[in-house]
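The pair is set out directly below:
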Amino acid sequence: MAVILASQSPRRQELLRKIVPDFQVIPADIDETVSEGLKPSDYVQQMAYEKAASILESHPEATVIGCDTVVVLGDKILGKPKDHEEAKQMLMSYSNQTHRVLTGLAILSKDKEVVRLSSADVTFYPLDEKQVEAYVASEEPMDKSGAYGIQGGASIFVREVSGDFYAIVGFPIGLVNQLLRDF
């Protein structure tokens, strides 16, 4: 089975390599604008599906994996920060709070479609503004949903995690492994 990952995320590639040593990377280019009234859980699953479907169109013999991750704080969806100031604001909003990370997963082939949701709740310690500024200056948060990578420099901010840790990383590897068995 030829597998294509519809993402250029190095974290997703590294994790997929643990279960599928040989795969292609073809990033999907889709409109990720959030539709009004769409629940965050529906949004990430729709985006994951659209990413995989856009690649499957031109590679119909492959099995395509699409993912999308967002952070939800209250009723607000937080994607990738636009600039350093927004990254800092996002991070400071998590201070001494619990937020939810949602990853939508879609695995598509010409014969089968599976779409799932993986999630985790993350609680941050009270944050020190200078540490947050230093983290933002490192550039690490700039390409990440919610402006942080739990496996990187932001690990010092995390007090507690409940749920699928790999949903936070953006690739629920256990779920992917289980679902790929049926393809």
User: Anything to note?
Assistant: The two ends are 8 Å apart (CA to CA). The domain at 3-180 is CATH 3.90.950.10 (Maf protein). The chain has a mean pLDDT of 95. The chain has six helices and seven strands.
